[in-house]
Amino acid sequence: MRRDRRCPWAGSDPLYVAYHDEEWGVPLHDARALFELLNLEGAQAGLSWLTILRKREGYRAAFDGFDPERIARYDRRKVAALLKDPGIVRNRAKVEGTVQNARAFLKLVDEAGSGSFDRHLWSFVGGRPKLNRFRSMSAVPPETHESRAMSKDLRKRGFTFVGPTICYAFMQAAGMVNDHLVDCYRHRAVAAARR
Question: C-alpha angle with apex 154: 32 to 164, nearest 5 degrees?
Fold first, then answer.
C-alpha cells in the first residue's frame, strides 16, 4: 500500500499528517495518556482537532502533564489562572471539566485499583480493538453503541465532556477501534498492532 494513501481527514498540514501516521488508531493503554486524550477530545468540542493538536504542548504544560492527582487539587485561583493561559482553549466549562474529570478518574481508580482506568475504558470494546473496514469517510459513524455505553457510564461516574460523539472520537484515537479507511496505508499496520 502506498504511503501517500491516507484517510482524507489528515489533509496536508504536517502536524495533522504526523498525528495520523504515528498516533491515531494505535492501541493506547497508558492511564495518564488515556486521561490526557479523553480531556483533549472534550476540549475539541466545537473546534477542529488541528486546533487542539496545535495547543497540545500548551495543555500539557498548563495541566501538569495531565497528572490527575495534581489536577484534582486545582482550586478557583488555579482555574482563573488557566483561563488567562493562551496555550489552551480558555473555556471555563472545559477547564473546570478537566478538574472534575481528574477527580472522577481518582475515584474510579480508588474503587477499582491500579490499572483500572485502562481496563475500564477498554472493556467497552471487549478489551481488544475493533477492526472496521470502512471505504469512505461518509461510512464512518459519529457514534456507536459502544461509545454511547461509554458515555453513559463515564457521565454516571462524574466525568464531563464525554458525550457519545466525543467518546467515539476518543475510541478512534486511542485505537479501541481501527477506523483508518481500508485504502489508507495505516489500516493494515494498525490492524496488526491489535494482535
Answer: 105
What is the C-alpha separation between 52 and 148, in angstroms, rounded? 23
Reply yes or no on whether 41 is catalytic: yes
Q: Which residue carries 501538569 as its cell? A: 64
pTM of the model: 0.95
Catalytic residue among 19, 96, 143, 185: 19
Q: Terminal CA-to-CA distance of the chain, rounded, Å? A: 20
Options 24, 36, 41, 122, the catalytic residue: 41
Asked if 106 and 72 touch (Cβ cutoff 8 Å), the reply is yes
**Residue range 113-137, pLDDT digits in tens:** 776 899 999 999 999 999 999 999 9
Q: Is 19 a catalytic residue?
A: yes
* Higher-scoring residue by pLDDT: 194, 8: 8
